[in-house]
Amino acid sequence: QSVLTQPPSASGTPGQRVTISCSGSRSNIGTNYVYWYQQLPGTAPKLLIYRTNQRPSGVPDRFSGSKSGTSVSLAISGLRSEDEADYHCATWDDSLRGWVFGGGTKLTVL
Amino acid sequence: QLQLQESGPGLVKPSETLSLTCTVSGGSMSGGTYYWGWIRQTPGKGLEWIGSISYSGSTHYNPSLKSRVTLSQDTSKNQFSLKVTSVTAADTALYYCARHDAAALGTSPFDHWGQGTLVTVSS
Q: pLDDT tens digits, residue range B92-117?
């Protein structure tokens, strides 16, 4: 059971906008930055969003992050086949004094 | 370009100790103020942070694993290591080593990852 809660799956068709949610609590998402990782099949996770809504260089602006209270969302617009991957949210938990992750969401592009 | 590579036995017997090493190339561990960490991944539980070690050698562990985990580093070899004692089938996972992108543990995400190594606990 992961500390952060994500839906196990999401899907969309090419060109659509898809959002993936991640919910937590005051001690983690409610207080700290959230990070999103993209994990393509058979590869290690790659940092996709940092500090809740910032993109590392090289990440397309089709990817965006937002936060409301103790939940965050990752939005992917103009969905492409190469976006098919697992997406993981992560943050620091002040109570646990450690990094916590969501269970991951498998995005399928139909 | 910074690269990380995990190495160690792929099969460990129950109750024994799991030992993995991460070798850093393309940069010096002692050349910056970074944290270095271990994360594991299982199909059922997703990603799980195991612990991290700072450039100065201070360690931070996941409370759920703290009693069985030890991190260490050998900066002369550009390596850091993980030991997990008294392993069970629940420790079977894909183990990643990674670098935090700065010196503040709680606000520094993992920006460079190894490719991962599968460790199976079985007799």
A: 999 999 999 877 888 889 999 999 99
pLDDT tens digits, A12-22: 999 999 999 99
Q: How far is B48 from chain A (nearest CA, A)?
A: 7
Residues in chain A: 110
Please state, as a whole number, how many other Cβ atoms lie within 10 Å of the Cβ of residue A108.
12
Q: Are strands A9-12 and A105-109 parallel, antiparallel or unpaired?
A: parallel
Which of B46, B115, B116 lies closest to A102 in CB terms?
B46
CA–CA separation, B13 and B46 (whole Å): 23
Longest CA pairwise span in chain B (Å): 41
Q: Looking at CA atoms only, how far is residue A81 from chain B in angstroms? A: 23
Task: With beta carbons under 8 A apart, name residues in chain A contacting B110.
Answer: 37, 45, 47
Per the prediction, chain A carries an average pLDDT of: 97
Q: Which residues of chain B have pLDDT under 50?
A: none
Q: Is B49 on the interface with A (CB under 8 A)?
A: yes
Task: Report the residue from A35, A50, A104 with minimal CB separation from B46.
Answer: A104
If pLDDT is split at 50, 70 and 90, which confidence band does A28 have?
Answer: very high
The percent of chain B in helix, strand and coil, each rounded to the nearest 5, is: 5, 50, 40
